[in-house]
Amino acid sequence: MRPPMKHLSFIIPVLNEAARLPALLAALQPLRERGVEIIVADGGSTDGSPELARPGADHVLVAPRGRARQMNAGAAQARGEALLFLHADTELPPEADRLLGAALQGGAHWGRFDVRIEGRSRWLPLVAFMMNRRSRWTGIATGDQAMFVRRELFERLGGFPDQPLMEDIELSQRLLAQGLRPACLRGPVRTSGRRWDERGALRTIVLMWVLRWRYWRGASAQSIWEAYR
């Protein structure tokens, strides 16, 4: 496998993730030792998340609450030539930096990993399978899939749109409009099925499809967010 690409920045938006942050950052330390910059963008946690993050991150910053705003704030601090956006409940494969580097050195401008969802519901493997297949077919990536993009391109497109939901879909559409298909890395990343477990898997599947359909039909991100909540 190729050596890891230099100048990678991983940006993690968090809000009250004290239960998950130590393990997540510990798993990223081998990548950090290979040169990956780790940035935690906190949205105003009240559970001590920023303090827990400092030993395992290169930068911990407080940003206006909202995943898109936090990720944009982290990107503004980053020094990497490529940016990867990692949810606090998602784990990367141990060789993520090398996989990402190989894709970028091979000419990719942006991309995402396949995802595996871990939780109680027996429907989650099917959800992950459909998510990965849909993403390959449409070119749309979601935040659960650990999106990555070259920094120059991200900045040229204005980063993530300032909206409370579907920011990942909107950025994907803007990248596709540039004629750029995503690199689909098999990985996979492992993400928590907590929202499916909490709300019910089938109910969540239906809800997310309805919300994406409404967004595609032109509903505002704010109205989508209110329905999601």
Task: List its traits.
229 residues; alpha/beta; Spore Coat Polysaccharide Biosynthesis Protein SpsA, Chain A; eight-stranded mixed sheet; 10 helices; globular
The CATH topology label is Spore Coat Polysaccharide Biosynthesis Protein SpsA, Chain A
Q: Runs with pLDDT <50, length 5+?
A: none
Please give the alpha-carbon distance between the first and last residues. 43 Å
Anisotropy-based shape: globular
Overall pLDDT score: 91
Number of strands: 8
Q: Which structural category fits the helices and strands?
A: alpha/beta
Rg, alpha carbons = 17 Å
| Percentage of residues assigned to helices | 40-55%
Strand content: 15-25%
Task: Report the total helices.
Answer: 10
Order of helices and strands: EHEHEHEEHEHEHHEHHH
The count of domains is 1
CATH superfamily: Spore Coat Polysaccharide Biosynthesis Protein SpsA, Chain A
Strand order of the largest sheet: 3-2-1-4-7-6-8-5
Describe the structure.
- This protein has 229 residues and is α/β, with parallel strands linked by helices.
- It has a single domain (8-193), classed as Spore Coat Polysaccharide Biosynthesis Protein SpsA, Chain A.
- Helix content is 44%, strand content 20%.
- It has ten helices and eight strands.
- It has an eight-stranded mixed beta sheet with strand order 3-2-1-4-7-6-8-5, with helices on both faces.
